[in-house]
Amino acid sequence: MVTVLSQHRRFFIAAALAGLALRLVFLVYFPTVTDDSHVYLNLATNWMQHGLYGQTQGTEIVPTCARLPGYPAFLAVIFSIFGAGNIRALLIVQIVVDMATCLLIADLARRTLRTSTAARAAFVLAATCPFLANYAAAVLTETLEGFFTVVALDCAVAGLERLDGTSGKTGISWPLWIATGLAIGACILVRPDGGILIPAVVAYLAAIGARRFSHAAKPATPSPHLASPVTASPASSSISALSFFSVAGIGVVVVVTALAPLAPWTLRNLRTLHRFQPLAPRYANESDELTPLGFNRWVKTWMAEYVSVEEIYWNVPGEKIDLAKLPSRALDEPGRAATLATIADYNEAQDLTPDLDARFGELATERFRAHPLRSYLLLPALRVADMWLRPRTEMLPPDPRWWEFNDDPRESALAVGFGLLNLAYLAAAMLAVVRRRTWLRYLGLLGGFVLLRTLFLGTVENPEPRYTLECYPVVLVWASALFARF
Fold this sequence. Notes:
By secondary structure, the chain is mostly helical. The protein has helices at about 1-5, 10-30, 35-50, 70-80, 85-115, 115-125, 130-135, 140-165, 175-190, 195-215, 235-260, 260-275, 295-300, 305-310, 335-350, 355-370, 370-390, 410-435, 445-455, 470-480; strands at about 55, 60-65. Among the domains are: about 145-220 and about 235-260; about 295-390, no CATH class. Helix content is about 65%, strand content about 0%. A two-stranded antiparallel ribbon has the order 1-2. A hairpin with a 2-residue loop joins strand 1 (about 55) and strand 2 (about 60-65).
C-alpha cells in the first residue's frame, strides 16, 4: 500500500482532504451525544478519575459489567490527554481513526482485487461515504468497531496471500494471524457482536484445510502411458497433510488470541461482581435490574422497521405506548383484547413490573404459536431488510417517518437522497459480485462475514441501521471492483 500511496500521492491527498472536509461538516453541524454516549462517558470518567469501572448512582460509583471496557478505555485515554469530558477532542480523534479505516479499506481492496486502481476507488468511496463520516462525529462505538473490523479482515487476507503464495512470499506468517486474532479481540471488547469475525475467519480456514486434506487423500490420476496408476509419494502426501494441520493451527491461534483479551475482563467480573460474565449481558442490564424478556419477545412478533424502535421500543418503560403508532399486525388476533388490556395497564403505570412483563410474554407465546411463519421468518427478514435498505439518517434531523413528507422539505429531501445513495452502494457491490466475482479474491471470507452478521441481526428485535455499518467496508471494497477496469 505504501507503493500505491507514493505513486498516487496527489490523488490520495485530494481524496483525504475531501473526506476530512465531509467529517468536519458532521462535527460542526451534527455532533451526536445519545443516552448510550452518556453511559460510556460516565464509565470512562469514573475509570480515569477514581480507578473504578462503574456507573454513578446518586453519590456512589457502582461497579458494572453492562458495557464492555473497550470504548470506555478509548475515551479514558483521550480524556487523560486532552482533559476529562473533552468531547470535541474525542470526535477529532475519531475522525482520524475513521480516515485510517479508509486507508485500510483501500488496502483490503488492493489485496482482494490485485490492482492499485481498485485501491484508489475504494479510498474515494470510503472517504466520501457520509454513513461512515456521520458516526465519526458521534460518541458511539461504531467508528472504533469499524476500524478493528477492517484491521482483522485486512490482516487475515494478508495471511491468506502468504498461504497461497500470491504476495511473493510463501508460508505461514504467524505475526499476521496473531494480529488478526488480537484485532478480533479488540472488536469484541468494543462490542460483543464483534465476535462474529471468529466463525467467519475460522469457517474460511476450515474450508481451506478441508480442501487441502482432500487433495492429500485423493489418489493420483492414472497415466495413460503406464500400466499402473501413478501414486503420490509419501513425502508429497505428508506435505499436504502438514498443510492441513498447519491451517488448523492457524485457526487455533486466531481463536486463542481473539479470546485472550477477554480473560482480564472475565476475571474482574468474577472477582468484583462474583459473576462469570465474559461478555456484556445481552440487554446491557445490571444484575439487579429487571430485564423485560416478555416485552422483548412480544415486540419480536410485530416489529419490522426502525421507526417502531424510536416510537415504541426505546420509550418503554417510562412513556405510554401510543396505539396509533402500532402497526395493525401488533393488534391482530389472537389475543387482541388481551393485548389492549395489557397495554392499557402498562400505560396507567408506565412501568414494566414483573407481572406486566409476564403478561407480555404470554401474549408473545400465543402469537408465536398462531403466526410461526411470520414471527420466525418473515419479520426477521423484514427487520434485516430495513437495517440494510432504509435511509441512514437516524443520527440526523430527518424524521424517522421520512416517507410521510410532513416536516421540513429539505429534511425529507436529505432522507430520500441518503436512501438512494445507500441503494447505490449496495447495488454496486452486488453487481460487482455477480459480474466480477472471478476478480474478487477471498470472496468466501468477506461474504461469509457479511452473511453471518446479517443472519445474526435477524435475531434482534430492534432493527437499527447502525448494526450493519460494520459490513460497509466490505460493501465499499466490492463496489470498487466496478472501477477496476478503468
